[in-house]
Amino acid sequence: MGVGVAVADSPEGPFIPEKKEIVRGESFENIDPMLFIDSRTKRKYLYWGSALKPLKVCEMADDLLSFKKGSKIKDILFPSSKPYEVLLEGPWLIEKYGKYYMFYSGDNCCGDRAHYAVMVARADSPEGPFVPMAEATGAESSVILEANSRWLAPGHNSII
């Protein structure tokens, strides 16, 4: 599986896929991409990940079709034994008051055994290191939204 790009001349499309993926792998570790453009530095970053592996980031080239020459893929948030953190995916980044907040989801999103929640981690840089809320506060978990009487398996969020 991999992450690719499709390009169009307008938001309505039609979108034409580029021939080469940005990143590719053997498993579903290369899913759930999120592009973030840092308003302070104008640097562009791609976040992604899953498959019981760390969430990742890499700086993008200005044309957004590949990674920036010389950039390196970095592991920025690692699975753990904490509730919902065995499998991490769906990263979404925002910047607020000079800090970078990554919202992410974990465990099993779907089906009869759904066990999924939204969590948050914070960093001083868009490249991390990201510190999960539980680690920063001593809480049992970094969960900010989990199953309740209204929602079965909330997750894979976006923040606006």
Structure overview:
- The chain is mainly beta and 160 residues long.
- It has one helix and 13 strands.
- Strands 9, 10, 11, 12 and 13 form a five-stranded antiparallel beta sheet that branches.
- Strand 5 and strand 6 form a beta hairpin.
- It is globular, with a radius of gyration of 16 Å.
- The chain starts with a strand and ends in a 15-residue tail after the last strand.
Helix content: under 10%
What is the radius of gyration? 16 Å
The residue ranges in which pLDDT falls below 50 over 5 or more consecutive positions are none
Termini Cα gap: 28 Å
Biggest sheet overview: 5 strands, antiparallel
SS class: mainly beta
Mean pLDDT: 94
Give me the count of strands.
13
Shape: globular
The number of helices is 1
Tell me the fraction of residues in β-strands, as a range.
35-45%
User: Order of helices and strands, N to C?
Assistant: EEEEEEEEEEEEHE
Note the main attributes of this structure.
mainly beta, five-stranded antiparallel beta sheet
In short:
With 160 residues, the protein is mostly beta strands. It has one helix at residues 133-137, and strands at 2-3, 6-7, 16-17, 23-24, 34-37, 44-48, 55-59, 74-77, 88-96, 99-108, 115-123, 131-132, 143-145. Strand 2 (6-7) and strand 3 (16-17) form a beta hairpin.
